[in-house]
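In this section we walk through a basic example: taking a raw amino acid sequence and producing a predicted 3D structure, encoded as discrete structure tokens. The instruction is simple. Fold the sequence below.
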Amino acid sequence: MIKTANEIEKFDKENVILSNPPKEMVELKTLVLEKLVETGGIIKIFEFGENMVLQEYITLIKFLLEHGVINQLTDIIEVIKSFISLLNGTTDFFTAEEKDYWFKNVKAKQISGGKQSRVDKKPSTRLKKKPKNLVIFEMKKIILDTLETVYCIGKELNLRRIFNTF
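The resulting token sequence is shown next.
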């Protein structure tokens, strides 16, 4: 949907974009981006509490993006890469035993030059409706909403460039 100049002006008035965010917001940005990168794109479904915290970090990232606190291209690219890794369900662990086995055996083989894929999961257990899985689904929904926000911000910037040339 293409916005008119009036709609873009209205958007600017309705959405507060911080050009110079407070120091505390910048520190919060640094913390949540570090935590996001620390996940390595791996979700441990058996860690319910950890997943709830990760979901809150993702919600914070969405807020910081929407309000212009995450505004550097390098940070935005890092968010996109991390979010895409989290959306990739082949890296999720369903049990602690699976995670331990992966890091002890398969990861060691990869480091020594052997190739092994994480796609050897049982699909029947992946999508069962359980509270643990619902947190994951909600987290991935927030990620998709945030990626849509990033896309809209980029689209809006392109429109502003076009309107500023006239």
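Looking at the output, two observations stand out. Residues 23-164 form one domain. The mean pLDDT is 78. In the next section we compare this with other chains.
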